[in-house]
Amino acid sequence: MEDVITISRLSDDIRQVFVTAFGENEEMVRLCRDARDPFQHYDKKPVLNMTQDEFVGIFNHNSDHYFLSPVQVLRFGMFCRLPFPNIIGLILKAEWELFLSEMAGYANGSGKNLGTLLYDKYLVELYLPDFKPGIRKIYNMIVNNTGDSGCTITLSQVDFMINDLLDGHKFLSGNDQVSRLYSEKVITEKIMLSNISRQERESYLRLKELWMIKSTALDDMLLMLERKKKLNVSMENKYYRIFGVLEIERVRLTIRHERFRLIISIMHDQPELKVRDLFRLADNRLTEAETERSDIKNKIARSHNSIEHYFPGGSSPAATDEFRNAYMQECRKLLRKIFFLLHPDRLMCHQSLPEEKKTEINELWLELMKSTKDEVYSFSPSMLLYNLPDYAHLDSIYHRACEILGINPDGFEMGNRLEFMIRKGAPIGQIMKFLKSETGQLELHLAQLELVQNEYTNEDQTQVYRDALDDITLHTEKLKSEIAGLKDQIISLKKEISYGLINAGHDKHEQ
Predict the structure, then answer these.
(1) How far apart are CA 236 and CA 302, in angstroms?
(2) What are phi and psi of 380, to 5 degrees?
């Protein structure tokens, strides 16, 4: 943290912003609902939903201080036509002053002077690390309270501005100083490159190229994994269409074998049990085997429940290359959004989520990973969805993620953060730091996806299916041999059980 901290109170900012916007002679109380001729916001309501007495309390830093809510600050900033960085700076300051007052005991009626607390640099350094404003909450507040203009700002831009204003406690400075941090003039990349040294230009272009390569690689990886899942499920369908009868017989015999083995084990441990109790206990322990049989039955049903049967002539309408490309692009964009929303590392607002919401997000990510495994239809190779992601299913996951995070799914756009930083005149050092950090994160995510891709796509089991389908005759004989072996083992186990029951009965008779 810097040695010198310049602090401006929210009340000072309110006065400065209003005077700059409307001049010294305009009455500020016209912002209040009980003013004679109140200023109205775009929604035809007074700018501040407060009385004149409450408004005076904004500038009173003793016991009668009035804390402006973030929504009131947002409406004030919008009415005064402040740029979004300035508005967010005011919102952060409103939340900070309430946070600091609570932490320092002012809100508990201790009699402390709020004005003194707000200027206390020791308290700022002490409590600022624990100040965690909700990025998602602020974004939603902007979107829900700014009319059509709220649609021009993205969550990633809000994320950037909040973290940038928190860095070096810039938001504590006067709102006029915040204006100097973010240029109102739109700066293009070409203009930025012309204003930096040759060495900086070369470094920037090199970092940007690497960032774009990794970003594209992540998009490609996500799309590839979804496509591979579809292909692998299709391979599974083909396997069970051919070997389903043998597989279900193998599992049926495996369950009988396991049942008899459990009975023998229970007989050894509890020889006093009756036959009916032996079988009941054994059946209670067969849950896992029964689950496997149920799973295989579902796979067999799906393999024969081909969706192409619903199309006249046995095949689906052909999809043009143009349609397929457009479909893949939409899937690519949706997958990036889902990845951004479901990965805590990608979205700062996860930090403020309650634990139950974090659990829901994690479960949603797991559902995405196994999405194709629960399908009830198989697809023909001539069909569009044979090897492409199921957009409808991905869209349902996206909407549920937005619901959990409290985000409007129709208004959520990720935006290009690099472009935004350049346009707002961020220093070249900050831009290159961002590119390095983002590239590192992308490399980490790619490595993580590489590690889990076999589980994600069910690749290991699919390779077993491929090997079997490469030589159908050989695999058929292998399954028949396994079935014959299970039958022989079952006969042997039944004899052992009968022998054990006879001996148990003989022992009891002798006693």
Answers:
(1) 10
(2) -80, 145
What pLDDT score does 119 carry?
81
* Contact (Cβ atoms closer than 8 angstroms) between residue 165 and residue 171: yes
User: Which range is least confidently modeled, 95-99, 120-124, 148-152?
Assistant: 148-152
Q: How far apart are CA 402 and CA 410, in angstroms?
A: 10
8 Å CB contact between 214 and 443: yes
Say if residue 138 is exposed, middle or buried (CB neighbours under 10 Å; 0-12, 13-18, 19+): buried
Cβ atoms < 10 Å from Cβ of 330: 14
Residues in contact with 369: Cβ distance below 8 Å, sequence separation at least 6, in sequence order = 452, 455, 456
Instruction: Give SS3 for 40.
Output: strand
CA distance 362 to 355: 11
Reference 207, options 32, 418, 461; nearest CA is 418
What local confidence, expressed as pLDDT, does residue 376 receive?
A: 47
Give the residue carrying structure tokens 């967010």. Answer: 88
For the chain, give the mean pLDDT. 80
359 contacts 204 by C-beta, under 8 angstroms: no
Query: Which region, left, alpha or beta, applies to residue 178 given φ > 0 means left and ψ of -120 to 50 means alpha?
Result: alpha
Residues in CB range of 497: below 8 A, 6 or more apart: 260, 263, 264, 267
pLDDT given at position 150: 46
The alpha carbon dihedral of 146, 148, 154, 157 has a sign of negative
Residue 78 near residue 146, CB atoms below 8 Å = yes
Q: Which of 59-73, 204-218, 287-301 has the highest mean pLDDT?
A: 204-218
* CA 453 – CA 434 distance, rounded (Å): 28
Which residue shows structure tokens 């020889």?
271
Binning pLDDT at 50, 70 and 90, where does residue 431 land?
Answer: very high
The whole-model pTM stands at 0.63
Domain ranges across the chain: 10-182, 202-470
Which residue from 191, 193, 189, 172 is spatially nearest to 181, judged by alpha carbons? Answer: 172
* Inter-residue contact 172 to 96 (CB < 8 Å): yes
> H/E element holding 384?
none
- Predicted local confidence at residue 241, as pLDDT: 87
Indicate the residue type of 128.
Answer: L
